[in-house]
Amino acid sequence: MQRMRALRKTSPDKAEIQQVPVPEPAADQVLLQVSAAALCGTDLHIYRWNAWARGAGIQLPRIMGHECCGEVVAVGENVFGLAIGDKVAVETHLPCGQCLQCRIGEQHICNNLKLFSIHTDGCFAEYTTVPEICARKIPQEISSRVGAIMEPLGTALRSVLESKVAGATVLVTGCGPIGLFAVASASTLGASRILASDVSAPRLEIAGRMGAHRILDPGREDPVEAVLAETGGYGADVVIEASGSITAIQQAFRCLRKGGRVALVGLPSMPLELEIGKAVVFKEAKIIGIHGRTMFDTWTRMENLLVSGKLDVLPAITHVLPLDRWQEGFDLALSGTACKVVFEP
Amino acid sequence: MQRMRALRKTSPDKAEIQQVPVPEPAADQVLLQVSAAALCGTDLHIYRWNAWARGAGIQLPRIMGHECCGEVVAVGENVFGLAIGDKVAVETHLPCGQCLQCRIGEQHICNNLKLFSIHTDGCFAEYTTVPEICARKIPQEISSRVGAIMEPLGTALRSVLESKVAGATVLVTGCGPIGLFAVASASTLGASRILASDVSAPRLEIAGRMGAHRILDPGREDPVEAVLAETGGYGADVVIEASGSITAIQQAFRCLRKGGRVALVGLPSMPLELEIGKAVVFKEAKIIGIHGRTMFDTWTRMENLLVSGKLDVLPAITHVLPLDRWQEGFDLALSGTACKVVFEP
Amino acid sequence: MQRMRALRKTSPDKAEIQQVPVPEPAADQVLLQVSAAALCGTDLHIYRWNAWARGAGIQLPRIMGHECCGEVVAVGENVFGLAIGDKVAVETHLPCGQCLQCRIGEQHICNNLKLFSIHTDGCFAEYTTVPEICARKIPQEISSRVGAIMEPLGTALRSVLESKVAGATVLVTGCGPIGLFAVASASTLGASRILASDVSAPRLEIAGRMGAHRILDPGREDPVEAVLAETGGYGADVVIEASGSITAIQQAFRCLRKGGRVALVGLPSMPLELEIGKAVVFKEAKIIGIHGRTMFDTWTRMENLLVSGKLDVLPAITHVLPLDRWQEGFDLALSGTACKVVFEP
Amino acid sequence: MQRMRALRKTSPDKAEIQQVPVPEPAADQVLLQVSAAALCGTDLHIYRWNAWARGAGIQLPRIMGHECCGEVVAVGENVFGLAIGDKVAVETHLPCGQCLQCRIGEQHICNNLKLFSIHTDGCFAEYTTVPEICARKIPQEISSRVGAIMEPLGTALRSVLESKVAGATVLVTGCGPIGLFAVASASTLGASRILASDVSAPRLEIAGRMGAHRILDPGREDPVEAVLAETGGYGADVVIEASGSITAIQQAFRCLRKGGRVALVGLPSMPLELEIGKAVVFKEAKIIGIHGRTMFDTWTRMENLLVSGKLDVLPAITHVLPLDRWQEGFDLALSGTACKVVFEP
Q: What is the pLDDT averaged over residues B139-164?
C-alpha cells in the first residue's frame, strides 16, 4: 500500500505531518494528486480546537485542509465526466443529491450537506479523494496556486454577483481573503466606487491594490461617518460583510442606503443584536446569506474571468510554502501578518 | 371659512373630535372628502403617546389617521392628472421627488420620506388634503371600505409579490391586519400551503377563512416543531413576518428552509438578537424589509386583483363605525377584539 | 423473457400494437409499469410521419408515447434515489449531465438533449425504462391520470412562472392542452384577467371552465381589437403563445402592451415574419422561449399545487381509453374533438 | 427677442443653419445653452427624409438633433429641482406622466411617448428647451462631449445591464456608436470575452480598442462558424444586437447558446424572418427589446461609471466640429468614415 505525507489533526492539542496510506477512490470519487492547497480560517479554528471546532462533529484524527487544486490520478468505476490527467479545483460542499435543495438547483446548500475536511479527510496531503461532482475540471491556464483558492474566491464572487454592483458604491467590511476577493470581484464587475474597511494596515494596503478606492480603518475613523461622507449622506448601495465582527455588521447596516443590498458572508462567533426597524424595514434592505458557490454557475463565470485575465487575485496570496513548513504558515495566518497562505505538498 | 369635524390628538393625554377649518389644497395637492378611513396600529401608538410616538416628531395638535378613501372635491392649480369627482385611495408615503431613491424608481422609500398624518394632518376627518402623487385614482367597483384599507393591503401584497410564493409553503407570523392580508394575498398568488401563527384565537379563525391551511397558536404548541413537521423537516419556503414580536422573528428563522425567503414587515419595539451564522449564512436566507408599496406597480396589481374579485379582504374588516364612535373603535382595537376597524365620517 | 404489449411506429405508414420484450433497466435506469400515458401533438406528428417527424432522427420501429405515470418495478444497480413501489411521473428531457448547460442548472436544455420516445423507446406500452434522473417520484395523492400529464402541465406552468402574472392581464393564444394548462396555471397564480383565444368552440368552452374570463375566436372577431378593447387600449401585460400559428404569433405581439412579457411555447411549422422595431424594440418586449420544465424547481411547485388542490387540470382531460383503443384516441385528437387523451395500458 | 443659430430641416430636400428666436421655457421646462450635441443615425434619416422620416410625423421646419449637453440658463415657474448654472445631459424620451407605464416605473416607454427633436424642436442650436424631468443634472467632472453622448451610451449600457454579462461571452453585432458603447459597457461590467462584428474595418479597430477580444468581419469570414469555434461549439452567452441588419439578427440567433440572452437594440428597415422553434423555443432564448434608458436608474449607474473612470467612451468620438461645419459632419457619418460626431455650437 502506497503511503503519503499528510497534515493531521490528531488530538485537541496536536497537529502533525504523518505518513498515512494513500486513499482509494470510491465508485463515484476521483483520487487527486494535490498540487496546491490553501489555508482557510476554518483550518485555524480546527488547529486551535476552539468552541466551533469542538462542536462541528469532526472525528480525530483528521487530515486537515479543504481548499485545493490537483490532478486526477485515479477514478472510481462510476466516474464518467473526468479522466486521469485532468486538472481540477475542489468544490468543498458535498451534496447528498436527493434532498429538496439538491433537486431544485440549490445543492450547494444541500439539506444534508457534508463539508470536505470536516466530515471527510482533507487536502493538506500529497493525495486526496473527492466525489466526482465536487471535482471541477479547470483549464491549464489557471495556475495551481489560483486553482487552490477558487473555493473562497467563488464565495466572494457570488456575493458580488448577487448584489448588482454595476455602477454602484460597494462597501466591503473585513479584508481577509474573502473580503479582498470581494474587492477584486466588485472591481471587475463594474462597481464604480469600492470602500474597504479593516483594522489591519497591511490588509488595507492590499485592498487598495486590488481595487478599493477608499480604505477605512475603524480604529482610526468612524466608518459610518466616513461612508456617509463618501456617499453624499445616502450610504452605500451594497455592503459585502466579510468580517464576521458584530460591531462591523451593526455599522454596516448604518452605512447602507435605503434600498441597499447586503451580502452576509462573515460568521460571527456571537449573536448579533440589531434594530430591525431602522436597519432593515424602513430601509427595505435586501439581505442574502452566502455560504458557497452555486454549482456550477458561479464556478463557470469565475473560471472565465480568471482565464480572460479580468480577475486578478494574486495580491491576496502573500505566502507560498512547502507543506512541511505548515507550522510557519499557520503562525503567519494566526498573527494576521499573512493574508492567503498556499501550501505546495 | 367652511369647517369640519376631525379627530385630533391635542396633547399627550388627549384626543378628541374638534371643529376645524376645511384645509385648502396647495398647488400640487387635491382636497378629498373622506368616505372611509381605517384604524392602524400606528394610530394606537399616537393615541397612547408611547415612546415611539414621542420620538416621531409629531407636532400637536394633529388630525389623526392615514388609511383612507375619498372623493376629489377640489384640486390645486398644478394638478393635471386628477379631476373633481374621482374616487381615490391614499398612498401615505409622501416622497420628495428629488433624492436618489425618488429618481431611481424607489420613491416609496424616499430618502426624505414624509408620512401622511405624522408630518401632515391626517384623514380621521370629513376632509383631507394630499399631494396629487399620493392620491391614487381607483375604480368605482372598489368600495370605499376596501379603498380605505388598500394602503396596508398593498404592504402585505408587496411582501408576497417579493417572495415567489407560487407552489410554495408560506408561513405568516402575526395575524393582525397586515398578516391576514398577507394570508389572503399568498392564497391568491398560488401559495400551495399557508401556515399562520398568532396568539389570538379570533384572528387565527379569520386567517383560516382567508386561506390559511394550518393555524398555529404559539401559546399552545411549539411553532418551530409544528412547521418542521408540516414540511417534512425542511422548513417553510417563505416567511412573511407581520408580528413584530422578537420571539416570533427568532422562531421564524428557525422555521425557514435552507434557501428560503423572509419578508420582514412587523416592527419590533426592541432590538432583535440573532445567530447570523445559523439563521442566515448557512441557510443562505434571502431577507427583504418591506416598508410600503412600490409607487405604483404594487397598487396597479392590487387594484386589478380587487376588481377581478380574486382577492377578498372583507373578512379582516371586523368593524365599521361612524367617526363619532372613534373611541369605541380604538378600544376594540386596543383590546385585540377587533381586527380592522373602519370609520365613516 | 417477459413480453408486453406496446404501440410501435413500425414504418412511415404504419403503427400497431405489438408484443415486444419487456426492457431491462440499465445501471442508471428504472423500469416502470405504466399506469397512464397521455397523447401529445408530437405523437400525432410521428403517427402521420410528417416533415418534422421525418427529420427528427427517429429510428423505426419505435415505441411511441412520452407523457406517462407509472410505478417503479425494477432499478438499475446505480440507482439510489428510487425504490420499487415508488410512483413516478416522467420528465421527458434526457440530459447528458456533462455539458455547460447541465453544469449550470439548465439541464432541461442540455446541449446534447435526448428526448424520451424520440431517441429512446417510449411509454405507450405496459412497461418502459427511463434514467433515474428523469423519473420524478410523486405522492400517491396525485392520480395516475394527472401524473401522466404533468410533463405538458409543467411546460405550461413554467411559462406562467416566468411571466409575473400576479395581478396582470394574460392572453393565452391557442387552447390545446398546453394553452388550457396555461389558463389554469395563470388563474392559480393570480392573473387578474385571462383572455383565451382559439378557433375551436369546444376548447374555448373548456378554457372558460379552467379560468378564462374572456374567450376569443379569431374566426369571429378581430383578436387584436378585442384585446385592446379589453385593456383600455394598452394591450395585455403577458402573452402565453401556445398555438404555434404564425398569424396568432404576429397578432400576439400587436396585443402586447409596451413593457409586456411573451412566453413562446408553440412551435410553428414555418418561419415567422415580424417587424422587430414595432413588435419588440419600441415596446421593450421581454420574450422567453419555453421548451420544458426546470429540473426540478418547476416540478416541485407543480406537485405542491396539485397536492394542495389549488391547480385543477381535469377539465382538459376529455378522454380516457385503454391502450388497445389507441386508434380511436388518435382519431379524436386529430379531428380536434378531444383535448387531452389519456391511455391506460 | 434674442435670436440664435439653429440647424433646421426646412423641407424634404433641405436643411440649413438659420437665425431663429431663442425659445422660452414653459412652466415645467428649462432653457439650456447647448455646449455639445452629438449626431445620431436618426438625424441622418431626417436629413435624407427617408421612408421612416416621412412617416414619423415630423412637422417642418424643425430644429434637428437630440443628443446633447448644456447649461441651464432659465427655468420655468414650476421647476424646483434644477437651477441656473446646472450642467445637464438630455433624456430624449418625453413621458406623459399619466399612463400605465409612467405610473409603474416604465416612463421611458410611456404609452404616449414623445421624442425630443421629433415631436419638439431639437438641440443642434445655441439654445434648446426640455422638460425638467428630461434634464438630467450631471457633475462637472463629465465633459460636455461625453455628456452629449450619454443618451446613446445609456441605451447601450442598459442592454448590457439587462443581460447578465459577468463572466460571460458576449457577441456585439454592429459596431456603430451603440455597438461600440455596448462593447465598452460589457468590458466594464465583467464580460470575460467580447466578440464584435461589423463590415467596417475602422469600426472594428475601434471595437478592439474599447474592449473586444475578437473582431469579426462577416464579409471575410462566416460569423456563425467563428462564434461557435470561439465558444467550444456552444455559442455566445449573450448577444447585443446593434446593427439592425436582418442577416446579422438571423445569424445572431444561430450564434446564441441554448439558454442565452439577446438584447435587440438595432432597428431593421424590413421585417425579420425567423424560425421560432430553432431560434427561440428549443434554445429557451431570453430576448429583450431595448428602446431607452430607465429613468433614472440607468442614468445613475452610467454617471457613476463615467465619474469613476471605469467606463471610457472617448475612442468612439471620432470627430468634434463646430456646428457651422454640420455638413461636413453629416457627410462623414453618411460615408461611414466617422463613428460618433459631436458638434459644438
A: 98
